[in-house]
Structure formats: structure tokens, C-alpha cells
Design goal:
Elements: H1 3-29, H2 39-59, H3 62-79, H4 94-112, H5 151-155
Helix pairs in contact: 1-2, 1-3, 2-3, 2-4, 3-4
Amino acid sequence: MRNGGISRVLSWLAAALVGGVFGIAGTIAHSVTWGPVPIGIIVAAIACGAILIAIRALTHDRGAALAAGLGMVGMLILISGVGPGGSIVVQDSLSGRIWIWVVAGLVLLVVAWPSLSRLPARTVAPEAAPAPDASSSPITEVPGVSPRLSPGERTGDGS
């Protein structure tokens, strides 16, 4: 395997590790509410979305973003089960279901987003020469076209 391949695999492993850390933090914090406002889901979704976008933007690689997303989803699945003491981190409630779908949707959105660097460049039309104003002299010559001669000028007799 070349150096490029080794560095790519290492970047995927690092992205999966970072995604797993964010997945754990978001999964633990998703149930925090401030009155009726689900602050935990909002902050965790912003954090997870931001790290996915950052990984995708910095590496220019869908594979790294996918690895981070799989790390997030994997840790969510791992710690959302019933623990040895019977506690559940992700309860079977509306907020738990929303959190699971938010994480999956963020990963899908960031990985599936088109690469803007590979879109065709927009061409700009060259600027046209300024239009002559009405007070200038009339056009007597056209560039690239030979002038027409009147019949008298061709033969030289002027009639």
C-alpha cells in the first residue's frame, strides 16, 4: 500500500474515533431539557453536525465523513442498550427516537452532499466595449471588413 493509502486509512480511523467520542457525548447529553426546550438534542446535533462537516471539509473525503458517522452511530447503538444495572442512556421516548434519527440524518446528509470543488466552474462573459455616445462621429469603418468601393472608384472614371 502506498503512503497515500496508509494515510487515508489512518485518517478514517481517526475520524471514526472522533465520531465515536462525539456520538457518546451527544447520546449522553441528548436528554437534557430546559423547561420544554430540548437543549441537549439541539446542542448535541449542532456539535455532531459541525464535526461531520469539519471532517468532510478538511479531508475532502466522503470516506472520512462516513467513518466519523459510523463511529457516532456505532457508539449510539453500543451505549443505548440496557446496562448491567438496568439503566438506559437512550430511553424509549420521543426524545430518544428523535436523537437516533437526527444522528442518522446528519450522517446521511453530510456524506451524500455533493462535492462543491468538483462542480463545473462558472464562466464569466468578457466585458463588452463601452457603447459610443451619440455626440461622437458616425462609424465609417468596420474592423476586419474591407471597405466597399463605389462603381466609379473601381474603374477610376468616377461616373
